[in-house]
Amino acid sequence: MDSMRSLLSTSDFLQVREHKLSNDLTVWLNEDHSQPKIFGAVVVKAGAKDSPNTGIAHYFEHMMFKGTDKIGTIDYESEKVLLDIIAEKYDALADTEDPKMRAHLQQIINDLSVRAAEYVIPNEFDRLISRFGGTKLNAGTSYDYTLYFNTFSPQYISQWAEINSERLVNPVFRLFQSELETVYEEKNMYGDTMASVAIEKLTERYFYPHPYAYPIIGSAENLKNPRLSEMRRFFEKYYVASNMGLILSGDFDTEEVLPILESTFSRIRKGKPPHRDIVALPPFEGREKVSVRIPMPFVKIMALGFRGVPANHPDQVALNIAVSLLNNSNGTGFLDKLTVDHKVMGAMAVNQSMNEAGILGLLVFPKFFFQTYAAAEKLVWKQINRIKEGDFSDEMFQSLKLEQKREYASKLEDINSRAEVMMRIFSQGKSWQDYLDEVTRIDALSREDVIEVAKKYFTENYMYVTKKTGRYPKTILPKPDYSPIIPKNSDASSAYVERLEKIPVQELKPHFLDFEKDAEVVSLRPLVTLYKTHNSVNDIFSLTLSYGVGQLELRDLDKLSAYLPFVATESMSFEVFRGKLQELGSTLTFDSTDSEFLVVVNGFDGHFTQTMALVGDFLRHAKPDDKKLRQIVDEAKVTEKSLFNSSENVADMLLEKVKFGEQSRYLTKLSFAEIKKLKGKMLLDTFSKVRSVACNLHYCGTLSTEEAARQIKLHLPLEEVSIPSNSPYIRDLMTYDKPTVFFMDMEDVAQSIIYAYMYIDPLKAKEDRPVSRLFSAYFGGDMSSLMFQEIREFRSFAYQVNARLKHPPLNRSEKPASFVMKLATQTDKMIDAMEVLENLVHDMPERPERVESVKQTIRNWVNNEYPTSRSLSLKIAGFRREGYESDPNKDYLEVIDRMTMEDILRFYKENIQDHLMIYAIVGNSKSMDMEKLSKFGQIVKVTRKDIYK
């Protein structure tokens, strides 16, 4: 595909301007005017490997949201006096082992923190980002780098640059005690994940003595003994301009932006990038045996771990192809074939490159009961040796190169995904051209290159891992006995805000969907509609067939979507059919949701006709194969064994039961006994039913509407469509007559997951929909919401805190709405967290000064979430399916602009304040006070059979 290679080097949307500011900070600028937004990020080349096992890099990332000497304070001079003493006390705490003295120091720190909070404006940084057009504010710490990023509206580029550079000049570590408790919650949350401790143990064994061996979040012992002085030294060492990068992708003018960035980000301290001595990993010596414990009986798990390559290694591209010979998106790899032929229950390859080392591994699930680890390993080695011996066709080799190039191009299509690539590439020390040149390197690869890297890396020196059934002892970080740190200035503004407000802002109106112009709409036949949008960035097409029936109507659809990738047609075997798709650079996948069944095709427009012919043959002539059902049965069995090991999964099942009763998706689904009785013909009969229901087709590509429609009508079985759709399918919500706590007991979990459900009568007034959105954002929408501040920010009572009011589609307005709140917290904080939530619900604080910022948040979301070209028509069709004739966001904003605190209060008093709260709680009863829990309602203990069929 020479055209694609030239596209990657010449298209305007792929041009990245690399520039250095006067302080040596690197800037990457990528103009793309396809969406009315900008993605902005700061990348710091410092991560967990630079503070191994301490967690400093991670909790420093948390503290970067607390403000500076100018942001987040009403009087920094007075606050600093207390913060300096707090820092000294933390250093003393880290040097103290005596429990009584530690408790005394912690109490002093708490008292000082409460006093310092009198000067704090909590969450001012987050509020400023939102006030000036920002959404999706977030950060992340990896082993190699730390990211700070968000999306924002283009007219606020000056404010964004000012705020985000200011944050890096002099960050202040305020509210540290409460934020450290939040990190404790995060640590405990990871500990409740089924395999997290096993993965930690395995990572340590694989990477030792490299710093990658230690968890990013740090050890429990180090988290108990933080040193603010070490965190300050970490900042001074690594947060220098030459060790950082600024990434912007989106709707801006490069020449206009550069002076803005120079005047703001050049304030960041100069400094030399820190020198790092890379720790070399020793080779494995023969077959090094390791076992890990996972609480999943009957299921065997095996892994083979080899030494991989770091991100900049010259063998990386060839190794990617070698791995795709084992696993690929069309399921034609050698390990894929073991799964398809049911020679093992499952097998996959992992190839991950970090900056200083790489992971190369194979994960294998032997068949239940009788297949031994040795037998499964022998099969796997046979597939590896096929690559080492060159036992693969040239057609397969070329098709995998084409697949790799398609994946490269697809990652660069839109602002968000391209910015993610830019951040990763910068963090690896590469230039943008290095990344674009990788397509040329793929083209230049020979079979011999792939054979050589397979021989080089898949050696007889490897780590052999097997699973034992069991659990590791948990280290639970308990709730400290602290007084809540509640700032008094939650609605104040710092003097810094006045500076931002003086910056001129160009007035830009939000960009709304135009149902008539944004997508061409063509009726192909009764009940069949084609939506066409143009792809202006490459020659890759996507075609989605959206049939209007989902899992809530046909309960075996999830099994159908899992089964179809394993079958072929009456005239072609699986290998031939999938091989032909792969040679064209095309993929065919399936999915099902509550209200639709999706057939998704991707490929190159130059091969559209041939791809449609293959897909049409599959839709008309898919051939049942009962042998392939064994894979579906095995997957269902693994689900049965693992589902109840995850408290998040159990909480989701319990909430479904509380909201929908016997209509819960987990009670209407096929049981395991029913799955075992399935036949291939039964599932393909269901597929025929699906194809008879009304269908929307969504094509995004370079072909004309007429040509795309002609090929689709020629090859796809649209004549089968004859039944109108019932979608969106809405289930009845449960009502209750008294407060109730549905409780599911789970041993050995540190965190409790709490859902609070409220039934809300059908909304009466037309304006209730927009105001419900405003209320939901005010109450539990983001970091500035009441729930977040009162429960997490001020009291550290929970890690996950959110709420959502969900009403039915417009054309189902007679149906009720639901309000669901969620908390995830340590069990010893659960009652406290629930009491605060109850107070918020039944006596909601009035904060009229926040209403404008909440309205601005909604405006930002509407503007910044304008869809990509591939999702435009899907969004339009989705709105139409719900009964809208135009973009509802336009009407919403017009109504919301007129709203005041009085409107929020009216909605709250009519629909929320006096309504019953029904709780769904998953936790460890041995660690909680059940008598206190009964204050929130009659406790109904739930068993597995009550929530899962």
TrEMBL record:
Gene3D superfamilies: Metalloenzyme, LuxS/M16 peptidase-like. The keyword Hydrolase applies. Keywords: Hydrolase, Metalloprotease, Protease, Zinc. SUPFAM superfamilies: LuxS/MPP-like metallohydrolase. Signal peptide: none annotated. Coiled coil: none annotated. GO terms for molecular function: metal ion binding; metallopeptidase activity. Residues 230-401, 700-839 form the Peptidase M16 C-terminal domain. GO terms for biological process: proteolysis. It holds the Pfam family Peptidase_M16_C. The keyword Coiled coil does not apply. InterPro entries: Metalloenz_LuxS/M16, Pept_M16_N, Peptidase_M16, Peptidase_M16_C. Belongs to the peptidase M16 family. This is Peptidase M16 inactive domain protein. It comes from Parabacteroides distasonis str. 3776 D15 i. The lineage of its organism: Bacteria, Pseudomonadati, Bacteroidota, Bacteroidia, Bacteroidales.
